Amino acid sequence: MPLPPPQPRQLKHTRAVEYRGYQREDGLWDIEGELKDTKPYRFVIPEERTWEPGEAIHHMLIRVTIDDDMVIHDIAVDMDSFPHETCPQAKPPMQRFIGETLGRGWRQTIQRHLGGVQGCTHMRELLFNLATAAFQSKSGSFQPADPNLPPSFLGQCLTWDFNGPVVERLYPVFFQWDPKSRKAPGRSDDESSGSSVPAA
């Protein structure tokens, strides 16, 4: 259903963000993020420059190359458009992510490498959701490395509640899972997961 009709208003800003996932012939994966900020009017930053309506003020691009274990092998970044001459200085710190893993604690990893004045706010924003895009892109990414443990996304939103009907239907072996005891009620220690991959 669409949003309710808005009150009279005037567009002031548009931020477009897009992610794309690619499987490479060498077995690795490229996950790309793109962010673009535009305004529908002439925009001026004094002593910097002027942007015409629709011209990108920010246009940031990231490509992260990962393996099947979500470990980062390479990262490429570009700034096609930026508002201040110092902005490109934030590109070299992005190489700190090589060797890191897209997974639990990803936001803390971003903060450790790019928090505060270490990097670019917009690059951080693109990185935040890159892990989700990677999970959606990789075939079999919903299967845990250890079949005796639940996939990492279970227990992370209302739909994937361990006590909810979706987990009961798609991951019955982890229904009513207790993260503290690392066990579901009535599950034997030698029982393995026979769960299927959920719809994205």
Describe the structure in your own words.
The chain is an alpha+beta fold and 200 residues long. The chain folds into 2 domains: 14-137, Sufe protein. Chain: A (Alpha-Beta Complex); 142-195, no CATH class. The protein is 16% helix and 22% strand. The chain contains 4 helices and 6 strands, in the order E-E-E-E-E-E-H-H-H-H. The chain has helices at 106-114, 121-128, 130-137, 165-170, and strands at 14-23, 29-38, 43-45, 49-51, 58-66, 72-81. The strands form 2 sheets. Strands 1-2-5-6 form a 4-stranded antiparallel beta sheet, covered by helices on one side. A two-stranded antiparallel ribbon has the order 3-4. Helix 1 (106-114) packs antiparallel against helix 2 (121-128). The longest helix has 9 residues, at 106-114. The chain is globular, with a radius of gyration of 21 Å. Residues 192-200 have low confidence and may be disordered.
Could you name the key traits of this structure?
200 residues; alpha+beta; Sufe protein. Chain: A; 2 domains; 4-stranded antiparallel sheet; two-stranded antiparallel ribbon; 4 helices; 16% helix; disordered C terminus
Mean pLDDT: 87
Shape: globular
Radius of gyration: 21 Å
What would CATH call the class of the largest domain? Alpha Beta
Could you give the count of β-strands?
Answer: 6
What are the secondary-structure elements, in order, as H or E? EEEEEEHHHH
Uncertain regions spanning at least 5 consecutive residues: 192-200
Largest sheet: 4 strands, antiparallel
Largest sheet: spatial strand order: 1-2-5-6
Q: How many alpha or pi helices? A: 4
Q: State the CATH architecture of the largest domain.
A: Alpha-Beta Complex
**Helix fraction?**
10-25%
CATH fold annotation of the largest domain: Sufe protein. Chain: A
Structural class: alpha+beta
Total domain units: 2
Distance N terminus to C terminus? Answer: 20 Å
Work out the strand percent: 15-25%
